[in-house]
Design goal:
Strand content: 35-45%
Largest sheet: 7 strands, antiparallel
Number of strands: 7
Number of helices: 1
Order of helices and strands: EEEEEHEE
Distance between the termini: 31 Å
Shape: globular
Radius of gyration: 13 Å
Helix content: under 10%
Structural class: mainly beta
Amino acid sequence: EATKHESGIYYIIQDEGTGETYPDINSEVEVRYKGYFIDGDIFDQTQDSSTFTYELSYLISGWQHGIPLIKRGGKETLFIPSALGYGEDDYYTIPGNSVLIFEIELVDFQ
């Protein structure tokens, strides 16, 4: 059901969002998200109605390729191989070589 992107991530777009434009690598993105492993264990997520805002160019490659696929208000699921996530090394609670799954809602960007 997921679509393979040329970068190597897989994605499912639940809602493309609205507006004429998509974010790009230089955008500051505001998102709600849940990140989990293949076994379903959650490693990180925004709480309740809170959001996370950051410049896309500073985030993992999987997000840099995946978030520009949706517009403001869009929702997607990204399946990110370790090479486009945190790589071979452990990163906080994420073991090296982990495939990451993110459910992302793009609240806003500029």
